[in-house]
Amino acid sequence: MRHFSLAYIDGAFVPVQGNEVVDIVNPATEERIGTATLGNRDDVRLAVAAARRAQPAFGRSTKQERIDMLLRLQAAVLARTDEIREATIEEYGGPLSRAQWVADYASQCFANAVKTLEDYAFTRQVGEATVVMEPVGVAALMTPWNSTAGSICNKLASALAAGCACVIKPSERSPIQAQVIAEAIHDAGLPPGVVNIVNGRGADVGSEISTHPGIAKISFTGSTPTGKAILRAGAETMKRVSLALTGKSATVILEDADLAKVMPLALSAGFLNNGQACIAGTRILVPRARLAEAIGYVKTAVAGLRVGDPRDAQTVIGPLVNQAQYDRIQRFIRAGLEEGATLVAGGEGRPEHLSRGYFVKPTVFADVRNDMQIAREEIFGPVLCLLAYDDEEEAVRIANDSPYGLQAYVFSSDPKRAHRVAERLEAGGVMVNAIRPALTAPFGGVKQSGLGREYGVFGLEAFLEPKTIVSA
Ligand code: NAD
């Protein structure tokens, strides 16, 4: 049993002011593996004060000094890659291959930021004016539980590259992962106050951050309702806000696609991270004439998916994060049945071979209409919908008929045609005939999937503000 009760403020691990203690439960075994004492508003005030003290000097640091800091962070996070992977598996049941990817990605974020920074011109001439890109000020980085290490490192790398001191608020559901990252940050030996971390609930720590006048910028990843609350709360002090939010992504399979090749890809886009991924392709659009064929592939593929111990390299789907998430998925499966969708694979309950853990059956529905609850709401578990369409126009219309627009996928044997369809989809990003993230290209959502972009130059500029200087 481990206990976590520290915040990281002003370059040191300090006892938290809050006193709420929460259990940490391994979702694969349902065993209590530790406890965490959560921070409160007082911890936030101390963290913001430390960041504000650090901001003036850090904001004036040179590009080279920031590159050196980012390289130190890269090395420190890289040294903890195994610990990050283990914490990711233990704390939320991320399957091994995904957990390894997240752990590798965490240090890569700093290397990517170094490259971006090396090529970036902070001063440029625009007409008669000199435009200087300045750090926006102290930034708050708030992250969800399903990608703790990745979200923190990605945001932190961009914020530091821009010259913003930070207050990080990880999810209260990921204290182990947050602790590993905090230790790596400490090892990097940055000036005190440049990075501060307070773990706690959204209702107090998150809310204090969203309203605190000392915070200039919020970079948030999480659900759309929380993103809206943060945007409203931040309006009073006119915080700059970037939001990476909920998805309900469409996978468009065009009628010329080789289903034997693309159905496994479409299913892995949907079941990514046990279905707990913002970019999961959960609405799979199939030409009506090929629906029966697609259902055949789904049945065979899902029957062969290993569900179980996330540490097992053969496992494709591990447990959901907690009992609440398990119950939520069951509700969605029941809703799908009640609304008249046809179960093609999976269904209610735990897989028969598992007696413990928050495991659900990977589930696929056919005969789904796009107005059904299971097609409109983000389920955040391994539950997918097959939607039939008659022609390309209808496919595009159904794909775009969603309040969300984070990611989309297009599969076709004709790359030009696939590209043409990709251009018509309302999404922040589209992957064509592949599942391959582009980690320096802009990432974010349109519509209610977010505001602003992360990664590369776009991610850097989210922490910068242009100043125009005109001289006689
Ligand atoms: P969540 O919105 O419940 O919580 C995210 C963070 O916000 C947590 O740190 C939480 O403590 C905090 N929070 C909650 N209420 C708050 C408030 N009122 N004020 C300030 N902070 C508050 O989301 P979650 O359940 O942790 O994560 C899952 C969601 O995140 C899904 O909707 C998923 O799609 C989304 N997500 C999006 C991306 C993306 O890049 N677009 C990536 C990962 C996850």
TrEMBL record:
Span of domain Aldehyde dehydrogenase: 16-469
InterPro entries, per the entry: Ald_DH/histidinol_DH, Ald_DH_C, Ald_DH_CS_CYS, Ald_DH_N, Aldehyde_DH_dom
Highest taxon in the source lineage: Bacteria
UniProt keyword list: Oxidoreductase
Catalyzed reaction equations: an aldehyde + NAD(+) + H2O = a carboxylate + NADH + 2 H(+); 4-(hydroxymethyl)benzenesulfonate + NAD(+) = 4-formylbenzenesulfonate + NADH + H(+)
Its EC number(s): 1.1.1.257, 1.2.1.3
GO molecular function, one term: 4-(hydroxymethyl)benzenesulfonate dehydrogenase activity
Region forming the signal peptide: none
UniProt keyword Oxidoreductase present: yes
Quaternary data: Homodimer.
Role, per record: Involved in the toluene-4-sulfonate degradation pathway. Does not discriminate between the sulfonate and the carboxyl substituents and can also be involved in the p-toluenecarboxylate degradation pathway.
Family listed: Belongs to the aldehyde dehydrogenase family.
Protein name: Toluenesulfonate aldehyde dehydrogenase TsaD
